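writing this on my phone so excuse typos. first protein, seq and then structure
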Amino acid sequence: MAVAPIEWADGRLRLLDQTRLPGEVRYVEPATAEAVWEAIRALRVRGAPAIGIAAAFGLYLGVRGSEARTREAFLADVRRVAEYLATARPTAVNLSWALRRVQRRVEVLEAPVDTLKAEVLAGALELLEEDRRTCRDIGRRGAPLLAGARAVLTHCNAGGLATAQYGTALAPIYHLHEQGHTLRVYVDETRPLLQGARLTAWELLQAGIPVTLITDSMAAVVLRQRRVDAVIVGADRVASNGDTANKIGTYGLAVLAREHGVPLYVALPTSTFDFSLPDGDRIPIEERSPDEVTHLAGVRTAPEGVDVFNPAFDVTPAHLITAFITEVGVIHPPFGPALAQLRKDLGR
């Protein structure tokens, strides 16, 4: 990508403010844990992997000024800041996963406070670099599934803007493009916040990949007319049985894909699997402000006083998913035993 969604340089965190896209490329520089929390909550940084990485840097920003003099007091500060940052958004498991990983990194060390502070930063930097490699591997693993396709359909934004660099759902598309096989990508606009129209279409055009933008309600026609050969989306949390939480509208798209015999692939890092949950009924679903539905670009489009239901995510049942694409390989049904083996392999 021409721009980096997340940067750390000279002791400062820089986040591409995605609420300004596509009209303006602007960075914010949150200097406190509270400012990072706001950036995550306000969707200035978004996408499951990206908010996990941002939160890890937020943890460092929150404890680098700690006045704790003992290891135990400092670890108490780490736990307090991590618990606070984890409340920014409830559905994407990468947020809490990244914070727990950095916490474990420092909790096992018997070291002075200054060393522990440095280790918190090192943990965040490690997550940033690891995510770049992981997304590349997702692209490489998923490319063969789309090698015979002419066009695909995607929903929301699971590209470079949602990660450290390369994306999850868009990673196989980018990989194929680099190999000389360019797919056309149909992009759902993704109401109510238009992440498809504002973000996915923008970054694909930046990469030189042909894009056709559609409203969410046009997906059925696109599938019926066989304009696409596959649907590929990202994920915010996947339960042990394969039920998948992703941006609202994914479930309906999955039903449509199954009805029309089009494969639905979910691309994600293994960190997005939540093996503590048996099924999707246990996944917490974030509900956001009614203003996101009643207003568009700050202009009211619905009558005053109307009731609004605004879940940010829905859960797609595992039986509607053709395969999961991860950095360690493609996972096919039956997902129960396959994910149990993955959990064993990951040591989780």
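second protein below, same order as before
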Amino acid sequence: MKFKIFLLSLLLSTGSFAAEKTFIRIGVQSGGTVEWELPALQDALKAGQADFQLDIRHVANAEAGKIALQSGAVDIIVSDWIWVSGLREQGADFTFYPYSDISGALVVPSNSGIHSLQDLKGKRLGIAGGELDKNWLLLQTLAKQQWDMDLDASVEKVFAAPPLLNEQLKQGRIDAVLNYWHFAARLEAEGYRTLIDGRGILHDLGISEPVANIGYVFKQSWADRHEQALKQFLDAGKQAKQTLCSSDTAWQRIIPLTKINGEATRKHLRQNYCAGNIEHWGEAEQQAAGKVYLLLHKQSKQALTGKSEQLQPGTFFR
């Protein structure tokens, strides 16, 4: 009996009976903002007693991340709620937790004569993301509502990769560019003028609440099994973002990950990144997302959203 008691105490002292930590496999794109936050997030984990450990899996691009999540190779990626709603319509149980509401922007040279969407008529417009880019669809909706203008037919569209579009704007080969936020930030830092950004588009469409553009996506069934670990991960992610926005030392550590030269551009990038923090995500913001969904559904003629005219229940993680 004494031997059994001794053996039990030995096992407990070595942690053999301690609860195993949850390994959260997260799919991360190289150079993406999630990768920026990993050093600060790891520091937050070391400082506290977390119930999880991160298993970082790098993915080549957004589509590769989606494939990895659907195949079960990772537990979490960053993606958008439109995609999540479409999956739920097909019977999947993925759900979305907001990460950032930062969006792209329509940028023109500082001396450009383009001051409104009407001035885009007959111009060459560079568009990142293709025909179904959300900002492009919403910009068309705004032009139709405000000026009864068919923007798609009014401009000469140029689709290309974001960095190539920036170069074409600098060379004068296109007149304006609708680009992702970090590429728009690079142009703004060099003196280019933002005509309107994603938030401005929504505001002019009558949607005043901030709407998350991207967020963490994971299976609801997985979240139910790992509730405590997931909560701690989401809290640690918020803390990491706040650290990058408040600590110059933490920001200096991740500068190589941004792959940007020039202090002015880095400063501008940081400002825009921090401006995307989600302060609140409640019923009002989710209803606003539902309005955005309906606009995208109509403008894309179901090509982006699928047949459903409304967001699927459970799209947003509660």
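Confidence is low (pLDDT under 50) at residues 1-18. thats all i got for now
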